[in-house]
Amino acid sequence: DAGVIQSPRHEVTEMGQEVTLRCKPISGHDYLFWYRQTMMRGLELLIYFNNNVPIDDSGMPEDRFSAKMPNASFSTLKIQPSEPRDSAVYFCASRPLAGGIEETQYFGPGTRLLVL
Amino acid sequence: GENVEQHPSTLSVQEGDSAVIKCTYSDSASNYFPWYKQELGKGPQLIIDIRSNVGEKKDQRIAVTLNKTAKHFSLHITETQPEDSAVYFCAASNIALSNSNYQLIWGAGTKLIIKP
Known about the structure:
The structure holds two protein chains of two kinds. Chain A is mainly beta. Chain A is built from no helices and eleven strands. In chain A, strands 2, 4, 5, 6, 9, 10 and 11 form a seven-stranded mixed beta sheet that branches. A four-stranded antiparallel beta sheet of chain A has the order 1-3-8-7, with no helix packed on it. Chain A starts with a strand and ends with a strand. The model of chain A has no long low-confidence stretch (mean pLDDT 93). Chain B is built from no helices and eleven strands. By secondary structure, chain B is mainly β. In chain B, 0% of the residues lie in helices and 53% in strands.
């Protein structure tokens, strides 16, 4: 498997524009996580899905952020409108169904977002 | 809820020496403690984990120890090498076999620098 795939790897946009980040989890994984990483706040969980259903979105900072998982192989994180404080590295991670065997979260390479 | 504190934020050691990173957690119900390594420009990657039913686990040059009474766990890297330079994250979670919906609570990260 190619691992977790994220696109784009880098995104530069202007304040007020819509940004869409994409993620393809590892095939067969039931869980998908979206994280944001900044120097100030470290690694923050934004939302996670189980079998395409959002389980916990309490980490989503504002209504400007939304995430969807229309099928088991694709998820998006959208920011509309974007603001300079949204600049960060956004990671997607996936994990198999837990059961005492495999608890590892597999991270993608991240999308580095810069909002000017 | 769970809170994980990680120290130090930066650690510089001479190549060949040992490095120790410490984490404390607040929720006594936590039973799973992984360590992730993040190399520059990449997503975090699991390097070792430990469950609450054991006190120590080793994998070649790395080891993790757990003190449930004191609620702290540590990562030990022996005979450090240049490729050990990275950011290391600890995390904690309460995993119940009856419920696979859990999330990791992350420490703030430690930047490990190996001096040649």
